[in-house]
Design a protein that fits this description.
The chain is α/β, with parallel strands linked by helices. It has two domains: 205 residues, 2-enoyl-CoA Hydratase, Chain A, domain 1 (Alpha-Beta Complex); 47 residues, Lyase 2-enoyl-coa Hydratase, Chain  A, domain 2 (Orthogonal Bundle), CATH 1.10.12.10. The protein has eleven helices and eleven strands. The strands form two sheets. It has a seven-stranded mixed sheet with strand order 1-2-3-4-6-8-11, with helices on both faces. A hairpin with a 3-residue loop joins strand 1 and strand 2. The model has no long low-confidence stretch (mean pLDDT 96). It holds the Pfam family ECH_1. Belongs to the enoyl-CoA hydratase/isomerase family. May play a role in fatty acid biosynthesis and insulin sensitivity.
């Protein structure tokens, strides 16, 4: 098992699954400028590693992520422009990170222990799947400090219904893990002691699939969901036709018909 660790991130490979763990416990794993950069770099490396099929995002400490580092933000109020240029840069970098997750050619699972607030909640919502410990909580509390969670809103509103998203955004209230599962923010809730085991079990199950098929499916999912119904079917039909011509699809169908385990080309 390969392991790397810095003050911000730890990375370890478990077969075809890469675990990336936020380790900036002192700052509650805030999405500081340096954290955003480090996480983006780590995901880009995972995307290029042909041995990795699934990425799990976890965190050390009592907070999965407390969102943006408000002390870091406030420190730029004294800039000549009141911080505007820095704020624009920070929001652009954070938005790019979330889109990197969506465009990652490998499924990404959030393993959530503790609280995920504001951009930390956005991080969870941006992942393809999420498994939460029973004590996890989620919120978009910007409204409480005069800063509406507008960028977290983008990911949140694409995961839960409009009314549930608006309730979180307008009240800033903490949502317990069980409720987060009810509204679709997370896939499942498990006992705290079982969180890593259950998340890795899910990751390893997905990692057993064809890497090429996972890439095709994830990309197609996010593209079609933004299209009108007729366009979505046209696009999906073209994707499925191309997928049928792929060697792994030929192998998978043959294996199914022959009642044997498939051997994926990639």
């Amino acid at each position: 098992m390969n392991t790397e660790k810095t003050d911000l991130l730890a990375q370890s490979d478990h077969g075809a699954v890469r675990r990336i763990t936020l380790t900036d416990v002192r700052r509650r794993n805030a999405l500081s400028e340096s954290m955003i950069s480090a996480l983006t770099t780590a995901l880009e490396a995972a995307a290029e590693d042909s041995a990795i099929r699934v990425v799990v995002l976890a965190a050390d400490g009592p907070a999965f992520s407390a969102g943006h580092d408000l002390k870091e933000i406030s420190g730029h109020r004294g800039d000549a422009d009141g911080g505007q240029a820095y704020f624009e840069q920070l929001m652009a970098a954070c938005s790019a990170l979330m889109q990197t997750i969506v465009r990652l050619p490998k499924p990404m699972i959030a393993e959530v222990r503790g609280v995920a607030t504001a951009a930390g909640c956005q991080l969870v919502a941006s992942c393809d799947l999420a498994v939460a410990g029973e004590g996890a909580r989620f919120c978009t509390p910007g409204v409480n400090i005069g800063l509406f969670c507008s960028t977290p809103m983008v990911a949140l509103s694409r995961n839960v219904s409009r009314k549930h998203a608006m309730e979180m955004l307008l009240t800033g209230d903490l949502v317990p893990a069980a409720r987060a599962a009810e509204i679709g923010l997370v896939n499942r809730v498990v006992a705290e002691g079982d969180l890593e085991v259950e998340t890795m079990r899910l990751a390893e199950r997905i990692a057993s699939k064809s890497q090429r098929t996972l890439k095709i499916g994830k990309e197609a999912f996010y593209r079609q969901v933004e299209l009108p119904l007729s366009d979505a079917y046209d696009y999906a039909a073209a994707v499925m036709t191309a997928n049928l011509m792929d060697a792994d699809a030929c192998e998978g169908i043959s294996a199914f018909l022959e009642k044997r385990a498939p051997t994926w080309e990639r």
